[in-house]
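Researcher: Let's run the pair from yesterday's discussion. Sequence first, then tokens, for each.
Model: Starting with the first of the pair.
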Amino acid sequence: MNHVSLSVIDFQEILSSLLLGAMSYPQRLRLAAGGSLPASIKIDAKTFPDLTNIVQRACLMFDVEEDRSTVTGKTLAEWAEEMHRLWSKPPLAITFFTSGSTGEPVPATQEFSFHVQEILAWAELFKGRKRIVSFVPRHHIYGFLFSVLLPKALGCPVLWMPIMPMRSLIAGLQGGDLVIAFPLLWGKLAELKAEFPDDVWGVTSTGPCRPEIITELKKAGLSGMTEVYGSSETGGVGYRNATEAPYELLPYWERVANESRLFRQHPFDGSRAAYVLQDDLSWKGKKQFLPKGRIDKAVQVAGVNVYPAKVRKIMLTHPCVADCVVRLMRPEEGSRLKALVVLKKVGVAVKVSEKELNSFLDDKLNHYERPAKLSLCDQIPTSNLGKAQDW
């Protein structure tokens, strides 16, 4: 297997991304140079009030032992050097975090060799790309793979960008660029209707990217889009380059007939490990598939798994709520949850308002779970078959 390793600079960029994720938007604008923090920035609780949790997350990622007291006062470069030294001893593994039913981070650990195995497969697919331009945080598995490891495997430079959809960002792209982003940002870039330079290719992951968004981007000059299917637990599983096409399994995955699991070959000893996927898949032979929907009935809001059934269950605990339906918005409505609520009647008067219901949910649901639109009605609309209809 080709040698791909992590340097001190890689650790610096991953830690920079982790710190940026804990900052407010104005603070990022003030302290960050593009998509990175300066190497000389001091790590302290004044600049990073959530420093204890940040250090804990970094230590969990790389399975090292440090605490806030040993990090405080160091520069970002010094912290990166120390983390790299502590991590660079076998067995090498990295833990990334996915979203569970409450949106709380759930750890998913893999050997570093599995990440290298994956990135060499992507390097073969993207051979010839001259530069990577990434809008994805490096401390998430998608950003780590495509903007930390992939540039090494391709032998090309990488440009880390702030997550701000602006015309100037598109104007700064060059022929041969591979742009790494996620569906929400691609949608914002499509709305700008700015022209892409020739020979710029896109990659999208973390959730479905609507076909009409990809169509608009191609009309604006994007040469093509690779949709990546995977998760924090599995890494990349498959890809497609056309919106109506099935996904193609990456070469190290294997499907066994009548199995609901996929098997992955170990890059060194040839052993196989089984993985249970979160989606029900429709197969076309052994190597191609289409996702049919979440087995656990989750939907994605800005790349985070949320469960409408959980939101409904909490809404029904309000003493004035008789019934409730929670759904993901239609594309033309937005990308968040919406809720339709039937209130209990006391005589002819309703005792609660939409504002009061929203306040009731504030401390029970996280930002992604809270419905962006909450409507009141007399009864849930149903079809002739008695099934709840959209509204």
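Model: Moving on to the second of the pair.
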Amino acid sequence: MIDRVKTASLLATAAMIICPASAASAQEVAGESSAASSGGLEEIVVTARKREESMQDVPASISALSAGELDRRFDSDVRDFADSSPNIVIDDTQQGPGGVAAVYIRGIGVADVEKSVDPAVGVVFDDVYIGQSSGSLLKAIDIDRVEVLRGPQGTLFGRNATGGVINLARSRPTYDLTGKARLTYGRFDTWKIEGVASTGLSDNVAVKVSGAYEKSDGYIYNSFQDQPGQRSKFYALAAALLFEPTDNLDIQLSYDHQKTKQDPPQLLAVNRPTDLFCVAYAQCSPSPGVPTSGDRYVSVSDGRLERNATFKLDMAIAKATYDLGSDMQVDYILGWLKTDEEINQDFDAGPQTLYHTDRPARWRQTTNELRLTKGGSGPLTFVLGAYLWDSRYTINLKNYIGFAGPPLLTSAQDVTQTNKSWAIYGEADYEIFDKLTLTVGARYTKDKKSSIVNDLPVLIYGTTVEANPIATVPGSIVMADPVKESWKKFTPRVSLRYELTDEAMVYALWSRGYRGGGFNGRPATLGAATIPYDPETLDNYEAGFKTEFAGGRVRLNGAAFLMKYKDMQQDLDVPAPGTSTGRENRTINASSAEFKGVELDLTARLFDGFTLSGNMGYLDAKYKDFFGDIYSTGTPVDASFLKIRRAPKWTWSLGGIYEAAIGNNASAWIAGDVHYIGGHEITFLNNPNLRNSGQYLVDASINARFNQTTVSLFGKNLANEKGWTIGYDVQGVWSYAAPRPRRTWGVAVTQAF
């Protein structure tokens, strides 16, 4: 342990010496703007409040990455944005093909693959909310801007944004021929090619196309089958059209298609001496927190490795903007998204057929949003809107339960859930007097959900081959009609902003977040299938400041917050005696919880060509009152002693970038960052086998640009920190987990035009 800490500290120090970089942006490189050329930092424009404005003017906690900054990073998907903001943890839980995002802001989020569980952090892509964890990792192709909004965003972004929002935006098509292409080769035989190009077709029509292809052997080896255990292929194609028929009307259309084909994600068994799988089948971990294989990156799973897990995503977006004049405009956004996935996964993570699942799933969502915005210099600015949501989710779950030999038992369950929701919202800024601005907003939301669950007969074959069952047991859940429930909520927001100077302001904020109730998507009993869990609400009390000084060379923002939870939703994976699987996945409500903390964001141009940046977050998250049936015994107990998952006390990042000219039309830069995630629980019941200690994630790159060609050498997780991204403890039976990606490196060539 001491050696590990020393290694991480040395690497962190080294990274800082070479000017580490996570938050340093190209916008802060000399010559990119008038501000930058004069030695100051470039203004960051965000759309966190559904309209363009300077980040420094927004009375809320926001971190942002610009197009220039993103161009200098080597982000593969949403996970790589975590170092840009304090108090955020983003993992790929590896519970399905295409990635299943666990996005937590200020200790609030969801890590479950089940789509009946609404996300607690909203991922918004080109103004369209992504309503599921599967597929919300979103590959970083043609991303033009990233905004991380911390704290509940119940007014403008609505339900299921209790923790915050990650807002992603792509570039508009251009009338001039522009574009770039990048070829990357990295460790684990990873190849990636991606590109984007845009051009005008006429005076008022422009198009943009983008695409990507990636293949990899992955960072896990399957020793039982003696082959790479995480092979994957991914491709994406997208097209966008910009049509401006008049000076006042702007129409944008886009279509995206993505497909992933991979081996089922490799889960690793972490069994205690007392677990059934250890006692009965000798699947015993050599020590606490160490997988059965003895190495976090070696799998012994007997699941099929034939790239038979697939994930497909199709998305269409239409946006029309009409300029009414007088700083007013009307926007209409239509979004449509569908995903289809197939996977047969080994959840016992061992060389016997003990517990496997086959779970083809389909998701469909349609959104409509209409809003009226008034911008300008005031004294009154506002946004008014209406929102419609419609989604449908189906899964055909099949469980295979063996005993390292016959008999093989199979059970199947069909689930269909729908959600129809509508909302109206508004938010306005009013300049009470010079330098003092009041913001008032509110949203009214109504949700209506339905669910129908039917168990198919349980078949006992007496062999590991599914043929001629020797016994049949009726399913325990039979529903002729779906159950329905509806909820409604009013979520207000009030803030005051006072401008101390032209470069400094302070603000105070109260906001409320709301996440709708629902029905369990993997019920073990009829009661669990038909009785809904309640919505959750969160009140956020926040005070902060935003400043620029030293001639615009230093930007320092900070905030302190207190968030009070009511009916906090928690997803459980617990024993369920008498059921076919012996386990139950369900959502319950904790009575109350409290989150408080402090956040700081810093960007400083210390001298021309060198920018230092960093952030720090402190979080104290605790249940205040939690009395519930957490062990599925039928008897509620006091559960307030549990630690809240994915809520590290400390997170911080420190990075920088140094760039210098090396000749005519040539430059070079060195970049790197250290991102620290404090120790935290990843299981609801705080399994000590599946607890993450503090981790130092070190990234660095060396780059040279000649005219419009850039050659880069980069590394990620250079300290080779080990940790779990997900873990489940089926008490008394077995535990399993997925590991964090290993150290990797690569070379990239980027050609711009």
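Researcher: Give me one sentence on the second I can quote.
Model: The first strand starts at residue 45 and ends at 46.
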